[in-house]
Every structure is written in structure tokens, then in C-alpha cells.
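FAQ: What does the model actually see?

It sees only this:
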Amino acid sequence: MEPPAGPHVVIIGAGFGGLNAAKALRRHLVRVTLLDRHNYHLFQPLLYQVATATLSPGDVASPIRWILRRAPNVRVLLGEVVSIDARGRRVLLEDGSLVDYDFLIVATGSSHTYFGNDAWMPFAPGLKTLEDALEIRRRILLAFERAEREMDPARRQELLTFVLVGGGPTGVELAGTLAEIARQTLRHEFRSIDPRRARIVLVEGGPTVLPSFPGKLRDAARSALRRLGVEVREGTAVTGIGEHGVMLGPERLAAGTVLWTAGVAASPLVRTLGAPLDRAGRVLVAPDLSVPGRPEVFVIGDAAAVFDRRGRPLPGVAPVAIQQARHAARAILNRLRGRPGAAFVYRDKGNLAIVGRGAAIADLGWVRFSGVLAWLFWLFLHIVELIGFRNRFVVLVQWAVAYVTFQRSVRLITSRGQGR
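And it is asked to produce this:
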């Protein structure tokens, strides 16, 4: 079949930003090539549930080709982009091939950063990919298995101590779910240990957990965590991470499992654009999301530094990436039609975080609430946003089973992985 005619738009990355940009350009007189190193789109907001054995990888991922099967002008290519030649208007793939473009949308997302302490990485995995989630699941489950065989009480308690570094939504969600696994899911399954004695510590270097939420909602989340038995340590800097625990200032905390949920940095690919970057490596884009001096190149999502009317950086969440993707697509179409561009304006629809079973917080701007109602709203919203009927149905069933039985059906240690 002959490829569709029209200018060539290349999109790098099939996350929320890249995928929605491709959708916005379907059925228009442009040729679109979507490049990604994976053949699936990952629903990252539920990735922590893969890490905590509630959902399987296939529940939170969908094949990109299937999602875009009704977009005849969109071609999907599996490949990893290693550099961008903005002057020559082409991108270089890992296998040496080149892809030319008329317009480029960079939606490469972010990865976790250790703030210059990369030596901590083997001891404290982050959570950004399916591979990360499976490795975290492996470490969590192995900690209980090893504690069951350990005869030394001190070493056993170390194995049953879990430290999560970073008190943002991911850290809070992981801590709450991990506490439920220890207190409920595993409580009757071991003979030598009592999983309920597991110690779960959430460490936040800033003054408070969930800093993007109002004070009352932060208090509600903090109280919910403490009811689950999670130790919340705020204003506490991590100064070292090793094989047997963490350093909290001068204090050493022995821990068998350390998880990193503290910070992110933009994909290093954006450095090849030669554009100005902020401290997190994000591109300082123009108001219309284009690269200064390169009006045909747009950067969106976690890779772009965009600020609201008060000068605050927009959060690295899915709604921001989705709105930016649609804006970039409109900007390209308007430019092709000879129409003027416009500055991007983010419409904040609210912020949500789940703490545990029946506990969540919701800030919708015009109303703020917590507890069971917020938890039900969180469940509904994530079911609606999942791509594909199968994913929605399976996730709904898994959540229902977990709620009724307190069980998590995918507690499988499937690979040796890396690390301890």
C-alpha cells in the first residue's frame, strides 16, 4: 500500500504524550511515523500495582499497533532513537538507520535520577518501566522468603525492613500497598515469621510528603499511612545507600529492601537537540512548546520544562503530557494551514493519590475530599483511562478480588534479575 501523502511528522516515544499526538494527527493530510523502543504503550499510573503483585504486566500495557490500527496515516516503527540532527531534520536510530522529518515531536519522557549518586542505583531500584516493576516485585517477595529461612533475629528484621526514598505519589502508593501486603495478604502464609512485623519506612527529604497537595489532604494521607503501620519520616535526607540499608544523616537504618521514588530527569536524548535545558535536563521550550530557533521541533511531557501563570513548573503527570500532545498537533496543523500559533495553556483538572484500601485523596480544584469517596473516584478514573476493553475488564476483576479476599494473584518470582 502506498504511504499517505503530505508532510512527514515524526514522533519519538509512545507514552501518553506521543500516543495522543499520533491520535490527534490521524485522518489529517500528514504522514506520521511513531518511533518507540518498545512495541507497547505503558499505563504508568498503575505500574506500582505490577510492582506490588496486584496486576500483571499485560494489564497495564497495550500493543501500540493495535491502539493505532484505525489510523491509516500513522506508521509505527520499533527502534531506539540515539540522537537528533535538528539541522538536517532527521533522527538516528540505534541500528544506524536515519528517519527524515518535516516536523518532530519529542515525547521521550523521563527516568529516575539519583541526584549525582548513581552508585546507589544497584541497591535502590526506581519505578519507570515494566522491567523496574518486575524487579521490585522480585525483591519484595524474596525479602519475605529469605526472612522465613533466616535464623539470626537481627538479620531477619533487616530483611523485613523496607525503605522507600521519596514521598511523592509513587512513594506513598507503594508504601501503602506494601503495608497491606505485609499486614493482610501474607499474614497466614509463613511459619517462621510474622509478615505483620515488617517495618515500612517512607523517607522524604522535603518538609512534607505529597507537597503538591493542600495541607489538609496531606494530613489525611499521612494519617492513613500511619494507620497502615507505615513510618513517615519527613525532612530527612538520605546521605547513603548500600547493600544493607540507608544512611539518614548520621543514623544508619538497616534494611533488606530499598526502593527509589525520589526524583526524575528528562531523557538524555533531548541533549542532542542543542537546546537550553533546566537543572533536570528538560528542554526550556517556547510558549508554543517548540524548541527556540527550531519552530518545526516540539518537546512535550516530562522532557519539556513548562511553567504555569505563577511561574511554577508543570508536574510530570499524564494529563499535562496529553494536553501538550494535542496542542503540538494543533500547532503543526495550523502552521500547515498558514494560521498563527498560540501559547500552550494547561487546564488543571485535579490531582489524585491513593494511599491504600479505601483511602485516597483528591484535589479537583473546586472540591477537595479524602477517604473512601476519593478512593472510589480514583478507581473509576483509572478504569476509564485504561486503553482497551480487555484491560479495563481484567483490572476491574483483579481489583474486586483483591478487595474481597485481600489477596494479590500475581505473587510470582519469575526471574533472578539484577541486584541482591
